[in-house]
Write a structure and sequence with these properties.
Layout: E1 2-7, E2 10-15, E3 31-34, E4 40-47, E5 54-58, E6 69-76, E7 83-90, E8 100-106, E9 109-112, E10 117-121, E11 126-132, H1 133-138, E12 145-153, E13 160-162, E14 172-176, E15 179-185, E16 193-199, H2 201-217
Antiparallel strand pairs: 1-2, 3-4, 4-5, 6-7, 7-11, 8-9, 8-12, 10-11, 12-13, 12-16, 14-15, 15-16
Length: 218
Amino acid sequence: MFLRVRSQDIVKEARLGNRRSPDIDSRPRPHLVRLADAGAEVVTPYFTKPYDNLTLDVGRRKHSVRPHCTVSGATWTESAPGTLALEARIDVQGIAAEDLVVRAHRDGRTVELDAFQTVTMGAGGRVGLRVDLARALAAGTLHRGDWRLSVALRVPGAGEVPVACDRALPAARIRRRGLSAYARPLDGENCLTLRVGIVHPVAGVRRRLRRVLRRRRA
């Protein structure tokens, strides 16, 4: 960023930024900027080293969005069986709920779960995401297999943020078109990966009988 001053046909151009108030936060902070064509781009103001001049990084040439985003705290919601709740911190200024999408990856295939998600924006960059996996299964968007979850910003090339693996997350039973399915987190994964499968009626009855027999013996 430069300031150009013209006086009496004399032009003086000087860089901006190296003299500023100590109250200014000098950390690079990405901003989501809306474009005229309904698109968006990430712009990150920062101060250069060693000269400390103000510069704009347009399009993440030097600054990635990912260090400013984390997704953790996966839990199953009690009020809506089969719905996964995620806690995130998205430190990108100017984002709205429609800018975020939960994605599931399996065997080179990626599906977007925006049709089954709700997003709540909080203060300080806190974001809550709820994904109705039961509806996604019923609609055929998800099917049996191991699905790796991530959250993405709807900006081309912005990358994705993996959902942190929570080893305390239990398996969940999901009702799917009259049949029972399950979603179980896999151990040993770097990010949250759910194994989705169908509970066959006969196998379910056998498990319930075994539980009943164990209780009687106890």
